[in-house]
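Section 4.2 – Deliverable D4.2 (structural model, holo form)

The reporting period included a commitment to supply a predicted holo structure for the target in complex with zinc ion. Inputs used:
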Amino acid sequence: MTSWTGESTPAAPLTVTASGVAYTDPLQDAVARDLHGVLWALCTGTATGKPEYTAELHPDRQRTAMEGLLCACCSQPAARNKDGMLWVLPLLDDAVDPRWEGVRSAIPPMCEPCSVSAPLLCPRLRDGHVLLRVREAELIGVLGTLYPRPGSHDAPGHDAVVLYDSPTMPFVVARQAVRELRRVTVVAFAAATP
Ligand SMILES: [Zn+2]
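Output (structure tokens):
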């Protein structure tokens, strides 16, 4: 949801072979891979200026928050209580299990203060959101750009969710870590605010 003006995600030259996608520069490629060998989008620039509430968090910030279970907005530890960790998610267009069980989220959890302020600032949440308490949130994969295999005439898929055990994982450039939410308690729904 939040990027900062001054941050940008330029496209570095990529090479797609039968074994997967890689940055053409081997040093860049090595730096951009995580412990799973997943290739991540490269980011430059520093956070300056004002936050921009866009559809996705900045990749570095999102990954740090998601992997460390830090607040999506302020990077403090996310709120926990006896029912689990606090997640605030936009209402999705597609049908979701009414219990929100098994939802895959690229949005990190939140702290209590941000769960109040973020829906006022973020357009996606302002259009309606749900507050959840979540007991299990396993990292299951990434959201990113999925490149077609060599010889295919398909265009790259820009918003592909690819699981860690998927055979297509070598062909993705990840932008966001994805967790699957389980043992979910729905706390409240909020309708769109004008
Ligand atoms: Zn916060």
